[in-house]
Amino acid sequence: MFGIEGTGDVSGFGGLVRPHPEVVGTPKPYGSYFDEITDALEDAYPGFADALEKVVVDRDELTLHIVPEKIAEVAQIMRDDEGLRFELCSSVSGVDYLNTDARRLHVVYQLTSMTYRRKVRLEVAVPLGGNVPTVTHVYPTADWQEREAYDMFGMIFVGHPNLTRVLMPDDWEGHPQLKDYPLGGVPVEYKGAEIPPPDQRRVYQ
Amino acid sequence: MTSSGYATERETTEGRVFTVTGGDWDTVTGSIDPLSNEKIVVNMGPQHPSTHGVLRLVLELEGETVTEARAVVGYLHTGIEKNLEYRNWTQGTTFVTRADYLAPLFNEAGYVLGVEKLLGITDQITERAQTIRVLFMELNRISSHLVWLATAGMEIGAISMMLYGFREREYILDIFEETTGLRMNHAYFRPGGVAQDIPDSAIKKIRDFLVYMPKKLKEYEDLLSGQIIWQQRTQGVAVLDVTGCLALGVTGPVLRSAGLAWDLRKTMPYCGYENYEFDVPTATTADVWGRYQVRMAEMRESLKIVEQALDRLKPGPIFVADKKIAWPAQLAVGVDGLGNSLEHVAKIMGQSMESLIHHFKLVTEGFRVPPGQVYIGIEHPRGELGVHVVSDGGTHPYRVHMRDPSFVNLQSIPAMAEGALIADVIAGGASLDPVMGGCDR
């Protein structure tokens, strides 16, 4: 616990070197129902070629990497097109790919089609503090989930009706889920006494 | 400017604002003209007996009618997702289980299914482990619904329901304790299987429970369904139709009470749910009454699944055969609680140096998970629990996000409450069954 430097990782495995594999696109055909989804989207959306960065099929899940500026348009088509019908936006979450991707913040949208019983994942990548158009006008359920992603990672959802913190206190500084935000990076206060964060504690060496 | 010790007043662009924290209402309102100055902002929670946990509601009232409602969450944020990233994959179950503390086994199930999918061992999970998971999830669903019935009953005014609901829940918690060692926060489902086999004594308890519970469910319905106060507090209250539910992402009993039979156990089966016979109960009223009916029926369906799972339970291994993943422990209940059985410790220590090293590496460092990301959706008592698991190839999760149904469902509070009476905010909020531990994580 004492003498920790850097991230304040107290697990004892801070010295492990993690591999940073690159995400590669999958060539056609994608298999399963995935071809039908991409074909339907291509037919319904004129700007398909410009909006799609790559398609990844991994572990029976389809991920469409979308150009950030186009995500709201794509979401609209995904919801409304007869052949797609992704009525439910199950989840919106962020991932910080520090040191792996120059556009380190990814926003991941999990869409569910109740009509066809299908799932698809949309993913966009932006740099730190980057802008992503909101999808709240397409999926109102994304409201709090985008607020959570902003709260934890700090990407800006442009056009969001009320982009404020939702889980952390309003006056919090920093975005705690970022990979370079240390665990236990703030002093712990308990009944008036204060315990400093691990990286600022006295060191016995 | 202070008119009394309790109420301060100040002028704003919207008129004169009084801040009231206590005291006698007549003294506070004595100097106000009730016809033109009736708007009241009530800050309900986060410490309030009927907000179902540390939920804060900011309500704007005209008389008793709610004109605007805003839910404020985050008071129970404990950084579970961040902490996970600093522990190995197996230790992750001890974190996720603490999120939604009324449905711990579902959190674990969503997480371990995600890890197993990343590892590519979904097909290798043994029949017995699979059946135990289904059995325990359904018992947990009943216990969660019982707490819902108990707390919703209390919030609407049926105090005795609270006592009965918690009493029967204890029975299920006893079964859990007998098997996992803990009443809550079990960390029982592990990537690759379950931590411990079910003892025969617990099986007998579950059999007894299957006889005992239907009578109790009947008793609850006798107590509540015909009760005129219960009917008037629930029927036509907090209506949210299918369109509203889908737009706001509301799933689970609330969606089914609006008439859409969307249950992930049926529509996108996992853990072998396609092999069990059960119905998906629905209602068409889309109100609190409908949600009550759906949850009561769901408890009966869960009992059916528990019975089928018990019949399927054949002796066999409870962990995957792969020694690089299977947790190298054989737990036993000792005088100081659940721990490694002494015979097993003797075996590891005495067998060979290699087995000791293997044991040590697997327990302290953990196994590596190939890089990638998966999303698992399972049917939680409150709706779709989604777990997004990302691995970078290391021994720790790179990122785990839990799409908790309480968090998403709470967004529908304004849609349910605005335009209704303040008493119905309580009934509507209770009918969502939010658990703030899951909501705030």
UniProtKB/TrEMBL annotation, chain B:
Q: Does the keyword Metal-binding apply?
A: no
Q: What is its main location?
A: membrane
Alphabetized UniProt keyword annotations: Cell membrane, Membrane, NAD, Quinone, Translocase, Transport
- Reaction equation(s) it catalyzes: a quinone + NADH + 5 H(+)(in) = a quinol + NAD(+) + 4 H(+)(out)
EC number assigned by the record: 7.1.1.-
Question: What is the membrane topology listed in the Swiss-Prot or TrEMBL record?
Answer: Peripheral membrane protein
Does Cell membrane count among this protein's keywords? Answer: yes
- What are the subcellular locations of this protein? Cell membrane
Superkingdom of source: Bacteria
NADH-quinone oxidoreductase subunit D domain boundaries: 156-441
Q: Name one GO cellular component term.
A: plasma membrane
Alphabetically, the GO molecular function entries are: NAD binding; NADH dehydrogenase (quinone) (non-electrogenic) activity; quinone binding
Q: What does this protein do?
A: NDH-1 shuttles electrons from NADH, via FMN and iron-sulfur (Fe-S) centers, to quinones in the respiratory chain. The immediate electron acceptor for the enzyme in this species is believed to be a menaquinone. Couples the redox reaction to proton translocation (for every two electrons transferred, four hydrogen ions are translocated across the cytoplasmic membrane), and thus conserves the redox energy in a proton gradient.
Summarize the subunit comment.
NDH-1 is composed of 14 different subunits. Subunits NuoB, C, D, E, F, and G constitute the peripheral sector of the complex.
PANTHER family per UniProt = NADH DEHYDROGENASE [UBIQUINONE] IRON-SULFUR PROTEIN 2, MITOCHONDRIAL (PTHR11993:SF10), NADH-UBIQUINONE OXIDOREDUCTASE 49 KDA SUBUNIT (PTHR11993)
Similarity section: Belongs to the complex I 49 kDa subunit family.
Q: What is this protein called?
A: NADH-quinone oxidoreductase subunit D
Identify the gene encoding this protein: nuoD2
